[in-house]
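Consider the tokenized backbone below.
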């Protein structure tokens, strides 16, 4: 539980991108580098206004794994891959935990 809510009521935008060295990695959409990812609560409207061209929509499960909810045709067109399920590495796990801790009560 997260302040009376389940983590799984939240969504994030992300996908597999290539870094400058050509390595593929899963990343979440953030306002800017080194900031926490956007969290969308129980809705897709803000996602579609903000990031649908650049990423896919994932539901955050209570164990912080991510499950694909919406594939963005625009993001696929630009080469952003959409894995069905993502188990976050330690860095992504920590980033998600920190994002949830900063949510208003």
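A designed sequence for it:
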């Amino acid at each position: 539980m997260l302040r009376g809510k389940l983590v799984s009521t939240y969504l994030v935008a992300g996908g597999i991108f290539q870094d400058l060295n050509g390595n593929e990695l899963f990343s979440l959409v953030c306002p800017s580098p080194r900031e926490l990812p956007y969290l969308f609560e129980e809705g897709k409207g803000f996602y579609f206004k903000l990031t649908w061209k650049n990423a896919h929509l994932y539901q955050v499960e209570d164990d912080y794994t991510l499950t694909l909810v919406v594939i963005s045709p625009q993001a696929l067109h630009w080469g952003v891959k959409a894995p069905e399920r993502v188990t976050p590495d330690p860095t992504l796990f920590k980033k998600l935990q920190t994002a949830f801790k900063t949510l208003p009560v």
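DSSP finds three helices and six strands in the chain.
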